[in-house]
Request: fold
Amino acid sequence: MSATDSSATIPAPAPNDANRRGPLAEVFFSLLRSGTFLTGLAIVMFWVACALFGEHFAPYDPLADDIINALAPPSAEHWFGTDQIGRDVFSRVIVGSRDILTVAPLATLLATIAGTALGLFTGYFRGIVDDIISRILEAFMAIPVVIVALLAIVALGTSKTTVIVVIGLSFAPIIARTVRAAVLAERQLDYVAAAQLRHESALHTMFVEILPNVIPPILVETTVRLGYAIFAVATLSFMGFGIQPPSPDWGLSISSNYGMIGGGFWWTVLFDAIAIASLVIGVNLAADGVHGAFND
Amino acid sequence: MVFLGGQVLPGNVGRAILGPFADQRAVDALNHSLGVDRPLLTQYGSWIWNFVQGDMGTSYIFRSPVAPFVIDALGNSMKLAAVAFVLVVPIGIFGGVIAALNLNRPLDRIISLGGLSVTVLPEFVTGIILILIFGVWLRWLPISAAWPRDAGFFTQLYYLILPSLPLFLVLFGYIARMARSGMIEALDSDYTRTAVLKGLPWRTVIWRHVLRNALLPTITVIATQTGYLIGGLVVIETLFRYQGIGSLIFTAARGKDFPVLEAGILTIGIVYAVATLAADFLYSVLNPRIRLGTDQ
Reply:
């Protein structure tokens, strides 16, 4: 989704514009030929459509309870059955895509912006700045995201913003590492030396000269991170540290219903689990396609 | 760092335990008896000193020493992690090797795509689906990991199979992928060609020349997955109601029981450091090229 947007806008300020449009168009066309990418994109687009327009074609209000028909198994009336207070599971699964598809992309965006800036700075200045920042980032990467999130959310309280910030900042070092590696290779090239000889400021050299040339690895890393962000958001919601009730979010629904799984009420969790699984696999297929398109 | 995260951010501990309606004098008295009204540095000094001596402090909620909780939980988690590792390491390596030997044939596609798909799924999603299949529909395995008191080794093992499977699935993809790419690289190398041209039997080439070189990076990956595994344990232990270090931290985080939270996370940090060190050691044992202090 955002992949095509940014690749369309980025080349404009690049000085070697004429040379860049060719390869980017080629990447675009090889994406269109990639079955993996198109399958992934189709799955993701399906859930995006559900998130945007789900309310209009969901048969019931996802939040409306109906105690008399609680825990009804799947039937013609309720395709996916009803949950413990009689809410229609089918409607909840459709509308449940909304929160995760807001939080995860925003977290990824934050991680990409912060990570790119950090990667540009450390890769461009190297030396002591690089050493200090890189050590700190490595220390952060050693702690599992779930643990960081747990601590931060205990300290700051649960809200969508906290989840976005926690996941965004936990992923930023990983993106920074990728960007840094790409920048280290770029800054050896003549155009960087030329910019420095023209007395361009460091900021100008980093963001106007180098950045457009390291877009491909950033795009690949961002699509991969989006998959992990969905993983993380779903997990945090399941743990009760993410999206809060009464949202029909998938992870949250599983967390409030899995206690009854021993009673055989499989429909209250199975469809949410499949929904998460399909979205995560869709994003990863698309990411795999993007990776392939840039590396062929 | 863990200490700061736990102490500085959460605000008033006494207030958190007694709730918003408690008398301010009661809150002050509780804070004093817990020692949380002392200056931060004093608290930090005594905390580290006591931890080193094996005293991890007193739980705010249970009002009893933390150490037995943490040690019990760590033991339980290690059992679970051990089951997952014993299953996944040989099977993952075997899968990767088979995939590489059948490069680009259907078997390779199935292993690679299957491995990729299960790796990207959140543990609680695969966990729920596995519980439904093996616990609810087939009734082969118990859906909770809490075995009866005084259960023998095999009973415990029986209860641990289902919880270890989601961890198995996530790790399988990583290990198989690393083993596969290591194998491909080694199969493509000059020494393999030399060995084949020397007329050595194919089996000998694979065992003596290819595998030894191919599996080195895999070992590093297995070690780096310890960090992931700890994050995964938090989720899995919550899902299966297993009394491990993950669920201990989770409960402590929910109940704002900071001594337990801090001790748990510090313990995890130590385990992580030890695992990384052990991996480095194993790597140098298996790879004579970087063995230190020889031929100098």
Notes: The CA atoms of residues 59 and 176 of chain A lie 45 Å apart. The first helix of chain A runs from residue 2 to 9.
